[in-house]
Design brief:
This protein folds into 2 domains: 79 residues, Arc Repressor Mutant, subunit A (Orthogonal Bundle); 46 residues, no CATH class. Helices cover 61% and strands 9% of the residues. It is built from 8 helices and 3 strands. A 3-stranded antiparallel beta sheet has the order 1-3-2. Helix 6 packs across helix 7 and helix 7 crosses helix 8. It is globular and about 45 Å long. The two termini are 25 Å apart.
Length: 135
């Protein structure tokens, strides 16, 4: 793992050392809902990440064992990225962010449908979604 000078031993501060930018959670979001992505897939996201920032964030997430690289099944020029078990463990965090924003913002219909399932059985949703990601 990349050695980062810690600002403190506070868990929030240490977490921000890994995810302290908007792009890292968007990469993780894409991997949660698409399971595997190529570099080009990330570049196509609506948020418009720059290539240099994407490359940096992928390296940081890989060094911190949140994501891993896999060989692409049809192209030697491409790699696939996917979440590690450590990355999959972020699912409940992202669910809570969605629920918080639903309370305070406007959620697109396709996400609102997912959140309705979450609100009916959060534990069951997280368990089944985690199993899907692990398969």
């Amino acid at each position: 793992m990349k050695t980062t000078k810690k600002r403190s031993d506070c868990p929030i501060s240490c977490t921000l050392d890994v995810f302290g930018d908007k792009w890292s959670f968007l990469i993780i979001r894409d991997l949660l809902f698409k399971k595997e992505c190529t570099y080009g897939d990330f570049l196509k996201s609506a948020e418009g990440i720059a290539t240099n920032i994407l490359a940096n964030r992928l390296v940081t997430l890989e060094e911190n064992k949140v994501i891993e690289k896999l060989e692409h099944p049809t192209s030697k020029a491409k790699v696939l990225y996917r979440l590690t078990p450590k990355g999959i463990d972020l699912l409940p965090v992202l669910i809570e962010i969605h629920l918080w924003f639903e309370k305070h913002g406007t959620i697109p219909d396709e996400i609102r449908e997912m959140l309705e399932m979450v609100k009916k059985d959060k534990v069951g949703f997280i368990e089944s979604f985690t199993k899907m990601l692990q398969s």
